[in-house]
Design goal:
single chain, alpha/beta, Rossmann fold, 42% helix
Length: 622
Amino acid sequence: MEPTNQKFLERVVSQKALQMGSSFPCQICVVGFLCGVCLTSLFLAVLTSVGTFGFTGISFSSLSMGNSPLNSSSEIINAITSSDYQSKVKETARWVDLKGREPESDDDERVSLLTEAWGALLAVREPEESEFSKRFGLSKSSLPNTPHLENCKLSAQVNKRLDTRSGSGRFPPWTTWKGSLNMYPATETDENLRSFKDQPVSDGAYPPWIVGSDEENYPLTRKVQSDIWKHQHPVNCHDPNIKFIVADWEKLPGFGIGAQLAGMAGLLAIAINEKRVLVTGYFNRADHDGCKGINCNNLLLVENFLGTGRTVLTITAMLYFALWIIASRGSWSCYFFLETSQECRDRAFELITNKEAWEKGTIKGKDSYKSKEIWTAKVPRVWGDPWSYLQPTTDINGSLIAVHHKMDRRWWRAQAVRYLMRFQTEYTCGLLNVARHAAFGKEAAKMVLASIDRDWPKVITNQPKSEIEEFVWSNHRPWVPRPLLSMHVRMGDKACEMKVVKFEEYMELAHRIQMHFPHLKNVWLSTEMQEVIDKTRSYPHWNFYYTNVTRQVGNVSMATYEASLGRKTSTNYPLVNFLMAVESDFFIGALGSTWCFLIDGMRNTGGKVMAGYLSVNKDRFW
């Protein structure tokens, strides 16, 4: 049966094209558009006689998308929204020195000065040179390099090049120059180098977001990631043979980020099986002040839709559309690069206003599939069954798990989540910078000061940055104290889904690792329970690092706990913990937790297979 105009309209307005822009002209466009809607509503009304129709989060709730120059190395990092950096950084994370030792040298004052000076430049409103000089008694250019912070702006620029086809549809330069070397000036002037860079990428090329060899990742990871990227980035998105799935991220109450990722992994599987390009829509967890902006392209889309004359809209529908425009700031692109090109997104959102495209199946939405089809989506068989030869590196109760009932799902979700999180945005990079500085900044300052003139800052030697520093060494990951063990302790209401164990059992597993790697003493701890944090005092020979947010006291639901933190904090700090776990040398968690399940998948597609995984329980579906 042909759908009614009203049903079609509801379907259209439910698809939220949400990539955000924050330009002033865009805001003017929004105001103008809304004024137009109001005037039109009033005019139609006259013609048709239509009637009018608990807790406070601390840590990352203060983060925003601001960028600020760092120092003489020209590093630029995202920052926290605060005029007083010191108070916020202390609220963000804490290095717990359980030994409680007193300062041992006269260098402590220099360490504090350098740590605070670095931190001041993390603020969204970077202090002016005069203000900085007055506050710290030195210039910005006199600050040494920051080993624990990433140049977020440069990383985003490099990654954009590696995630975008050229104007002629050529593949990104995956196999030529790594990271910043792709921007090395000599490659633009030397004909031989430029010719080499322009050569097509071979079938054997693998994407730059994969670390390590095939043996250090899940089977076929490099090929699968390359194929997914090609699938999601067709050369011509306007090819009439290209079909789409446009779907919002799951937003039912009680669904955590892990469940949202698992659901989107199912939709990506459906898209590959049906040869469709997946386009994500509204991501409710990005609908907060840190992810600001309105996409002017969405306004043009709506204006074109209203101007077609093919669909008669009621006043209510027009206002609904206007409200949709205002609310469309929540997008995955706040945290990670989008799943497809902007060209394909524009084409997909153009098609959602086309009734014929829905009828022909050129475009589908989430409501085109049953819930079970999404959550238990058939794993793509394009690559055979590589999950049948997963290496047994997961330890449960002292034994390696070689075979279980959901090996295919475990392999696929790892691939899907790795693709969706392949490149971080400047905002996410900035969250990690703030977290690392709050946790490791003091240690980093001690290392740096031990390698420069002892009379700093009285004696300052500024040296120009060499090319090897700018184009080669800049590609190294930020420093963290290693080896680093990440531990995710999940308790609370999770007891209704899996077996939960006490913190002491997690520490028993940590001791097992330490027996084999005796130099291990650093733990990045993530947990929602305050009692877990309190128990760390019983382990004075370990260094625990953790974000300092309000945690649960007693047993409340995760939904209630997240609501108490607020949307920004309840999204930002888990993602920081997630990414820190992915980068850590070892990981201890609970496979019965979807969050731990996905962390394991990201590690196994990030060169960490041979690090193993110690779990306090098994997945409840195995």
